Amino acid sequence: MKWKQLPLGPLQTNCYLLFDEEKQCIVIDPGANGEGLIQYIEQEGLKPLAICLTHAHFDHIGAVDEVRDHWNIPVYIHENEKEWLLDPSLNGSARHPMQPIAGKPADHFIQEEGTLSIGAFTMQILETPGHSPGSISYYLKDIDTVFSGDALFNGGIGRTDLLGGDHATLIDSIHTKLLNLPDHTIVLPGHGLSTTIENERTSNPYL
Questions:
Q1: Where are the beta strands (DSSP E) in 46-181?
Q2: What is the top-level taxon of the source organism (predicted)?
Q3: Which domains does the chain have, with CATH numbers?
């Protein structure tokens, strides 16, 4: 199993393509530039099975409907943000100089932590709120990797001054859910470069 990082849009939000030897693929956080993203996926011969969202801020969801409709695939999101795909005032697009994002509902709502299986992919869902109320991280033990969204960055943490954000909740999420993962776990954040759990535990100035 492999992954590809694709920074998209003006905020360079990391979209990730998680794929296996059969070229089946999970699209994580398709934030913008849907046409280019679709072109890249087709160019690589990948076959998307689903879209998995770490959370529903506008810079992570801008290309959701375009990608979903192109392949007729389902979208997964935490139930605490089930209205955010539809409402620009919730996803934040109404407060930015851009086209407001008011898309369609997700197809599946994650209600609790546990195992999510899609095709040959098995991911552990970790609830990591604080940056937003429905923030989740996807942990794949088989490849020692966690997709942390905007909870934990390389040398930083997510902002908590947006709707539903809470600093104490975010710090608790990071310490109890993410930093408990094995030290060698690769952290793939929503923005910026990858890191490891060990690096963040030992050197992140916010922790």
A1: 47-52, 75-78, 108-110, 114-118, 121-127, 136-140, 145-149, 152-153, 156-157
A2: Bacteria
A3: 2-203 (3.60.15.10)
